[in-house]
């Protein structure tokens, strides 16, 4: 079995279940050797009002919200780049001891307002770290670079294939990256 890092990146249209797939994958794995974060919608009165990030160590914070006043905006959402930089991005350290897999959900327009995030993801890709990430379907810069990186296995999700792909990836990561030493 190869010791080469796995670089698995999920993409697909909004609402296809990229975050759902990532959560299923990490729930099936030994979290003691995984770091990173996933994002989740904030809903108030059945309306989406923002997005939260959740680090795998239990910390969480608001990435974007309709009530955040910020020069960084995506549609109606103001993005809290400073909070994201100081808390979520800190979980993406390729030199962290015992970490075998980094989860980055998602590499999208909001997250890419953070230069620290862009640099952290580029450092992960330049390291020997294994990565499970999601990336926006459209976008330039880091979004485009991730999808064109030859070390990345890009998987296109749909609502119909999401569960099967998540199960397959969890099995591969458990047998490869997270296998007992």
Layout of helices and strands, plus pairs?
Elements: E1 7-11, H1 18-27, E2 34-44, E3 47-55, E4 60-65, E5 73-74, E6 77-79, H2 81-88, E7 101-107, H3 109-112, H4 115-126, E8 130-135, H5 142-148, E9 153-156, H6 162-175
Parallel strand pairs: 1-8, 1-9, 2-7, 7-8
Antiparallel strand pairs: 2-3, 3-4, 4-6, 5-6
Q: Short summary of the structure?
A:
By secondary structure, the protein is of the alpha/beta class. It has 6 helices and 9 strands, in the order βαβββββαβααβαβα. The protein has helices spanning 18-27, 81-88, 109-112, 115-126, 142-148, 162-175, and strands at 7-11, 34-44, 47-55, 60-65, 73-74, 77-79, 101-107, 130-135, 153-156.
Structural description of this entry:
The protein is of the alpha/beta class and 181 residues long. It has one domain: Rossmann fold. Helices cover 30% and strands 29% of the residues. Strand 2 and strand 3 (47-55) form a beta hairpin. The longest helix has 14 residues, at 162-175. The radius of gyration is 16 Å and the shape is globular. The mean pLDDT is 93.
Tell me which oligomeric state these chains represent.
single chain
How many individual domains? 1
The shape, in one word, is globular
Helix content class: 25-40%
Query: What is the tally of beta strands?
Result: 9
Number of helices: 6
Mean pLDDT, nearest integer?
Answer: 93
Class based on secondary structure composition and strand pairing = alpha/beta
Biggest sheet record:
9 strands, mixed
- The Rg value, from CA coordinates, equals 16 Å
Strand content: 25-35%
Please identify the top-level CATH class: Alpha Beta
Our measurement of the CA-to-CA distance between the termini, rounded to an integer number of angstroms, reads 13 Å
CATH topology type: Rossmann fold
Named CATH architecture: 3-Layer(aba) Sandwich
């Amino acid at each position: 079995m190869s010791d080469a890092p796995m670089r698995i990146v999920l993409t697909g249209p909004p609402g296809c279940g990229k975050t759902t797939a990532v959560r299923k994958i990490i729930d099936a794995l030994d979290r003691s050797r995984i770091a990173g974060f996933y994002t989740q919608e904030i809903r108030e009165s059945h309306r989406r009002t923002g997005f939260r990030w959740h680090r795998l160590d239990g910390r969480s914070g608001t990435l974007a919200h309709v009530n955040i006043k910020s020069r960084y905006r995506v549609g109606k959402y103001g993005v809290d780049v400073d909070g994201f930089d100081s808390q979520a991005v800190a979980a993406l350290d390729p030199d962290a001891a015992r970490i075998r897999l980094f989860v980055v959900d998602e590499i999208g327009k909001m997250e890419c307002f953070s230069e620290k995030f862009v640099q952290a993801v580029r450092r992960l890709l330049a390291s020997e770290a294994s990565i499970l990430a999601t990336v926006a379907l459209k976008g330039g810069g880091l979004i485009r670079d991730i999808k064109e990186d030859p070390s990345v296995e890009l998987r296109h999700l749909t609502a119909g294939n999401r569960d099967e792909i998540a199960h397959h990836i969890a099995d591969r990561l458990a047998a490869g990256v997270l296998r007992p030493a």
